[in-house]
Model the fold of this input.
Amino acid sequence: MRSILVMAAAAVAALGAHADADPAAVACHAFTGDADYVETTVIRQLEGGEVTLRVPREYFEDAWDLAGGFRDTAQLFAVEIGTFESITRREEGRRNRQGIWNWMHFVVADLVPLPQIAAIAAEPFVIPNPPVTSYAMRPGEHGLTWLDTPFASDKAEAREDVFIDPADYGSMATVIECDSTLDRMSRNPRCQQNFRAAGLDLQLSYRRTELARWREFQAQVTAFLTCAISEPA
Done:
């Protein structure tokens, strides 16, 4: 097990994670030698091939997942922010009613390239979408680069902000789409964070109030996937 945690820590080191706790220690805490594991396979329709994840049973609640050997084009997880403990849909509902939103979802999938995701987010109602290079880059929140898109928060019709990292159209590693806090139609603005890890595409979803922790989230999910793919020692 120590070797798995070492591999996970190495995989996230390049992300520049700045959380107080080690991402691998937090995200992989349930990957113990005596844990009950379930295998699920993500089919990569666009890239081809498939990736099998070996995950502690506590992270699943649907019968088809719990049976083991389930195969699909995507896999959803829900975890508590800070502890990376699994959160059930019932628990999400309870916390919603109490006004507690301390969890995030992440989907493991096979998606289009990040520049295309950024272009679609910038102008979702235009087909074909203008290339992401059409939008000027400017300093954004929390070390991110903010794209100058038609529906950004400083525009007349504020709907969504699109952030990328790093500030390079050709090598972006992260694309984050956030509901504008000025959009009256969005009562609880959320962010969707897109990136790649362990040969898979990831989409994280959380409230915009948590955007400052985007590096921490990315590092932890990367560690989780690394532990799920690594063979146990």
User: Anything to note?
Assistant: The first helix runs from residue 2 to 13.
